[in-house]
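Note to self: user wants both folds in one dump. Writing first protein now.
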Amino acid sequence: MRVLVADDDIHVRSALRLLLEQEPDVEIVGESTTTDELLKQVTETPACVVLVDWELPGLRHNGIVSKLRATIPRMRLIALSGRPEAQVEAQRAGLDGFICKGDTPETLMATIRAQCETTAPQQ
């Protein structure tokens, strides 16, 4: 499973990297700290799943979710947030999944696996 992580907080990215690197079937294909970096990375290095901070500056503005969808339509977008109530917003915006930053590693992996199973591998 090819995963791209987009979060402007280095601590969150580091923690996700540590968790994901323990999984033998997960390949972290990139990390982004801004929406511009994210758009560039999904074009250059497609992923099965993008874990994207729901609070990433600019994400909810300027049609970024639509641009991501247009770039790689089969890519799955999973929102990360420290606010459980943000799940409804993320679903309305068209994201495929939601993970609260306080969820367990098992929940994180189950969500990623479920999303990867719904799409074909990216080249």
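First done. Writing the second protein, which came from a different request thread.
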Amino acid sequence: MSALLLLGIGMIGGVGAFSRFLLDGAISSRAGSRFPYGTFAVNLVGAFLLGLVVGLAVSEDTLRLAGTGALGAFTTFSTWALESHRLAEDGQGRLGALNFAASLAGGLLAVWLGRLLGSAL
């Protein structure tokens, strides 16, 4: 892996992280709920897009840039797990379990749909 590719992954990762911040904030400010809709939406969108990129059968370097850089920084496993845990800590165990399960099931469905679409294009 070249130094230029590593630099590209880092720079594109910054764009992915900033995009996550914007989308999560926009959704969370409108939802006004204890459920973390922003993180939920970010992770579903990211899973779909990663499936799409894989389905398109792009080059290895493109997959590293898009998958690892942009979408790796865009999606957020740690925030999803932390928000699920915090809901349980705050006495919202069912909501935490729902967030955990719905994100997992929705993410698998989203990546499958994205891959299907990518393969068809």
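Dump finished. Worth passing along: The mean pLDDT is 97.
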